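Let us walk through a complete example step by step. Step one is to write down the protein sequence. Step two is to encode the small molecule, 2-acetamido-2-deoxy-beta-D-glucopyranose, as a SMILES string so that its atoms and bonds are unambiguous. Step three, shown after the inputs, is the structure prediction itself.
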Amino acid sequence: MTTRQFFALLLAACSARLASAASAQVFSPPSSGPLLQTANYTSFSNNTLKDKPTCKGKAFNRIIQVWLENIDFATTASTPIFESLAEQGILLTNYNAVTHPSEPNYIAAIGGDFFGMADDNMYHIPSNISTVVDLLEDKGITWATYQENMPADDFYGFLYNSKNYISPGSADYPYYVRKHNPLVIYDAVSQDPQRVKRIRTFNDFANDVVNGTLPQWVFVTPNMVNDAHDTTIDFAASFLTYWLVPLLSDPRVNDGETLILLTFDETETYTIQNNVWAVLLGGAIPLNLRGTTDDTLYTHYSSLSTVQANWGLKSLGRGDTIAGLSNVFSFVASKTGFKNVKLPADRVPQFNLTGVASGALTSTNFVPFPAPNLKARGAGGGSVLIRPGLNTKLTPGSLPAPVNLLLQDKTTPWQMSPRTTSGKSIIPCADPNCA
Ligand SMILES: *[C@@H]1O[C@H](CO)[C@@H](O)[C@H](O)[C@H]1NC(C)=O
Ligand SMILES: *[C@@H]1O[C@H](CO)[C@@H](O)[C@H](O)[C@H]1NC(C)=O
Ligand SMILES: *[C@@H]1O[C@H](CO)[C@@H](O)[C@H](O)[C@H]1NC(C)=O
Ligand SMILES: *[C@@H]1O[C@H](CO)[C@@H](O)[C@H](O)[C@H]1NC(C)=O
Ligand SMILES: CC(=O)N[C@H]1CO[C@H](CO)[C@@H](O)[C@@H]1O
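Step three: the predicted structure of the complex.
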């Protein structure tokens, strides 16, 4: 073999390896530990929050939600790390996503509705639509979201390709996607210069924890490989071993009053009930309930109602106040006196319908955003919070019948053209022609 042939063979062997690495990625820790900043996350933290929690909750004083992606309950339940986490907490056996695909589920958990959304496109939601952030700030509860591999705090792009840290030398990888970052999609959050600082990177997470300023309401989105989206449940299990397991025994994250909800956005299989695996963990779980299961019907709206019950917050007057579909996690309901509602079996939705709901974020069944139900009473007992610019007269009953905008060659006014890897914060425009 000539030297040239040898190198040709070597090159072929190497590219074959790279190709197989791309098809089956192997978990690699992005840093030496979850509380150490890393260059694998593009930019280092510039600041820390200055949070001093003041308002005590009835059942917990901090809630951390961690969302993984697209796995059926049975698959997760038979994976070792998840089995061992269930033994440390309360396994919620009847926790449901609200629709398919991903993005509407994230939206729903923040704003109490998915407004008909049936895809993963680039949207923004006008600033008169309230979110959990309004409810939290109304009572001085501190909050932040931490998005793995988001390149900077004010990032507004559709996705971000960063250095491939799993297969060095391979093409940059879209580890961060906007569709899993619900707070940025709500203008009430991302277009507010103070609030946008709370849409934070994973290096900020390390900085905030180390500096003792981790807020009281936290939403964590691991990147597209660690959350199992592009990989497998075993890959996500390795990520949790690296990231969550050490944090569970770190009092700066999990003190005696912390509640952690680990769950999934939706099931992978669309033709089954959208029942995702979910566990409640953390120091706030009463000792006698650790290792138990709770079969109450919950949905992504339950994380909203649970937070409202815990801190006595106002409500959004949307999915968070629908009896039976927004049950409060039982141990919190019993500490706050909230009465959950058990729906008769024939009234329990399967939550797996896609593209049938009408709303402002669907082109096929478009209706404008309605005002919330102002008469609703949420689990926190307060009134419905109204943001500036909300037209309370736009009740669902007063809105026009749904129209199919695609028949008129239009998309919804709230769908924007994707911005890919760049993406400074911009003020969105309601005119579809200027997005
Ligand atoms: C980035 O991740 C890779 C894969 O785990 C690791 O080998 C490397 O040390 C990390 N780089 C930094 C700067 O932490
Ligand atoms: C820190 O500041 C620099 C310079 O302004 C910026 O490029 C970088 O993205 C910032 N980091 C974060 C995490 O926002
Ligand atoms: C939803 O799940 C049920 C089973 O629980 C199934 O019968 C039904 O076909 C599914 N619907 C869709 C649209 O896949
Ligand atoms: C919310 O604001 C948008 C943009 O200004 C407006 O088009 C819409 O009618 C408002 N909706 C409600 C319910 O107030
Ligand atoms: C912004 C800030 O104060 N960051 C500090 C957080 O804690 C680390 C470690 O003690 C410091 O190096 C940072 O300066």
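Step four is interpretation. The first helix runs from residue 3 to 23.
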